[in-house]
Amino acid sequence: MTAQPQQEFTGKVVVVTGAGSGIGRAAARAFAGAGARVLGVGRRRHALDETAADRPAIAVHTADLRDPEAPRQVADAAVERWGRVDVLVNNAGATRMMPLDQTTAADVEDLFALNVTAPSLLARAALPHLRRTGGTILNVSSTYGHRPLPHAAHYAASKAAIEQLTRSWALELAADGVRVNAVAPGPTESEALAAAGLPEADVEALKREEAARIPLGRRGEPEEVAAWILRLADPAAAWLTGQVLAVDGGLALT
Ligand SMILES: NC(=O)c1ccc[n+]([C@@H]2O[C@H](COP(=O)([O-])OP(=O)(O)OC[C@H]3O[C@@H](n4cnc5c(N)ncnc54)[C@H](OP(=O)(O)O)[C@@H]3O)[C@@H](O)[C@H]2O)c1
């Protein structure tokens, strides 16, 4: 007799932002593999379609989450389709080089619109549904949410903000039975460095340098971060809230 794969998210509805690549794609596929119905959100339709290919449990929704109207439309799309939301994964995010002597109001606002405001408005839009289902919010921070990052200080600041939102919302929503946790990945294979506009040669050099600094000796794979997003969202983690879990090959210890 073959063992059935574990389906701990059967009947659950999960919203994953940034599902067209990297950690978000891995998380969307892992939730679908664990029985959930998943709404994958991002700007590029073709990238989302690739995430959902051959996975009927994944539906896609294109949106630029910097648009203040988008978060409500995302929550509505999930509820119109499936009638509930159990898990919100605030994964979409961007990194940007921003030396202080080149920092502009527009660049700070743009970065925070995606990394801080959008997760806030998504959590707000999903909240009535999460209260109903006793659901959970998973935020994606970074090693640099709790470490300094010269030349990209506003990325670090935006992730520090998401960690404080995680702890504050955890207390604010505990009485509603809504749990809020975060993962803080270390350097992980994804499109993030290319999306930040770094030349390919710089990306390769940076990857080598990062791998050398990580105690376990390598960068992470998106699936290795996604696995912990699922564990923290799992109903079996019912007594865990307000935590930021470093998934980083030991980088935070150095
Ligand atoms: N990779 C790492 O080393 C690392 C380390 C620590 C933390 N993180 C965090 O992990 C999260 C996922 O990043 P990743 O590494 O998987 O990078 P990624 O491959 O660049 O994924 C980011 C995703 O966000 C989506 N996105 C970007 N801007 C958006 C917008 N305005 N509206 C809607 N969606 C948008 C992108 O899709 P579209 O372009 O199609 O919109 C993309 O699929 C981010 O929050 C990042 O800060 C990554």
Write down the CATH class.
Alpha Beta
Shape category: globular
User: What's the number of structural domains?
Assistant: 1
Q: Indicate the radius of gyration in whole angstroms.
A: 17 Å
Query: Strand pairing plus helix content: what structural class?
Result: alpha/beta
Residue share in helix: 40-55%
CATH superfamily: NAD(P)-binding Rossmann-like Domain
Fold-level CATH name: Rossmann fold
Percent of residues in beta strands: 5-15%
Order of secondary-structure elements: EHEHEHEHEHEHHHE
Key structural traits:
single chain, 254 residues, alpha/beta, Rossmann fold, seven-stranded parallel sheet, 8 helices, 45% helix, binds NADP nicotinamide-adenine-dinucleotide phosphate
How would you sum up this structure, described in words?
This protein is of the alpha/beta class and 254 residues long. It has one domain (13-247): NAD(P)-binding Rossmann-like Domain (Rossmann fold). It is 45% helix and 14% strand. It contains eight helices and seven strands; from the N terminus they run βαβαβαβαβαβαααβ. Helix 3 (70-82) runs parallel beside helix 4 (105-133). The radius of gyration is 17 Å and the shape is globular. The N and C termini lie far apart (47 Å). The structure holds NADP nicotinamide-adenine-dinucleotide phosphate (NAP). NADP nicotinamide-adenine-dinucleotide phosphate (NAP) binds next to helix 1 and helix 6. NADP nicotinamide-adenine-dinucleotide phosphate (NAP) binds at residues 17-18, 20-24, 42-44, 47, 63-66, 91-95, 114, 140, 142, 185, 187-188, 190-192, 195.
